[in-house]
Amino acid sequence: MIPADIVAVAIDIHTHVVPIDFPAYGGRHREARWPQMRDAGCGHRSVIIDGKVFRTVSQECWDIDRRRAAMTAAGISHQVLSPMPELLSYWLASDDALSLCQHINDTIGNMVDNAPDFFSGLGCVPLQDLDLAIGELERLMSEGRFKGVEIGTNVNGVAIGDPRFESFFAAAESLGAAVFVHALHPAGLDRLVGPPALAQLVAFPGENALAIASMITGGTLDRHPELRIAFSHGGGGFALTLPRLMFGWQHLDFGERISRSPVEQARRVFYDTLVYDRSTLLHLIEKFGITQLCLGTDHPFAIQDVEPVSRIDALNLTSQERKLLLRSNAQRFLGGGC
């Protein structure tokens, strides 16, 4: 029998928020792709970007009561709220992006304030301008409502392991901020054949693998050993990429540029469990370690895992191992307090 205290607590590190509305654009850039919300009926609203519907979303994106009802149905007791990735808005002018980030962060902060036992926050920062990004990160971490930030796998096509982002990761490490990385504008979209949803299902895994590899081969993880960073969608295809990196490190002179082995570095990064498959989860545990996986669902979007706890139960883990996946690893990633 599973102990009652373990049943009662499951932390979901991968959930998203969309504000019920956005303020009117008040910036100075005539061609700004500023988001708007439009009523879509039945309580749904459409996110409009550049005059087109990007996504129609449900009330669970902003309504705390509906969100908590969905959490109960899924066996989740605590959610970590982060922006819908498209709202990271790295393609906006820096001043516009900061204004949008602050509106989204205030929305998340208010949700946390209204139900602190049920929600924690990961904000967003304008990574296209590192000074502004670090300033907003400092503001968020000073408030106490936020555990850190969500960022994309790339910033306008530049992988996050590029040295130009060094100052941001140094600040995140110094401030004790958790960093959750979500696939964004993935590479390879021009190679997809089929429905639009393939971007999330087929391109996201490769994009995540590229981002994690860049953090290792670019030296970011080596330079910042105390950085707490997690990757969405189980790290995508990185578990299959890791042995190839190890071969290069051992046999192709990678060691001259990467002091610690790729496996050692990969096994201190966190990954969510959003892979939809028992055998894949077991493979991630084998490659990354039982201490590095955190429950994640992608709530409330169409590709969310609606039975996340049952999927972990199907692994036939010990009570202690189950506790790691359901809550303890998430608490370590977030720095405690959930």
What does this structure look like?
There is one protein chain. Mean pLDDT is 94; it is low at 1-7. Helix 10 (278-288) links the parallel strand 12 (270-272) and strand 13. It contains twelve helices and 13 strands. It has helices at 4-7, 64-74, 94-114, 130-143, 166-175, 198-217, 220-223, 238-251, 262-266, 278-288, 308-313, 319-334; strands spanning 11-17, 36-41, 44-49, 52-57, 78-83, 119-123, 146-152, 154-155, 158-159, 178-182, 228-231, 270-272, 293-294. The strands form three sheets. Strands 1-5-6-7-10-11-12-13 form an eight-stranded parallel β-sheet, sandwiched between helices. A three-stranded antiparallel β-sheet has the order 2-3-4, with no helix packed on it. It is 40% helix and 18% strand. It has one domain (4-334): Metal-dependent hydrolases (TIM Barrel, Alpha-Beta Barrel). It has 338 residues and is α/β, with parallel strands linked by helices.
Produce a short descriptive summary.
The chain has about 350 residues and is an alpha/beta fold. It has helices at about 5, 65-75, 95-115, 130-145, 165-175, 200-215, 220-225, 240-250, 260-265, 280-290, 310-315, 320-335; strands at about 10-15, 35-40, 45-50, 50-55, 80-85, 120-125, 145-150, 155, 160, 180, 230, 270, 295.
Attribute tags:
alpha/beta, eight-stranded parallel beta sheet, three-stranded antiparallel beta sheet, 13 strands, globular, TIM Barrel, 338 residues, disordered N terminus
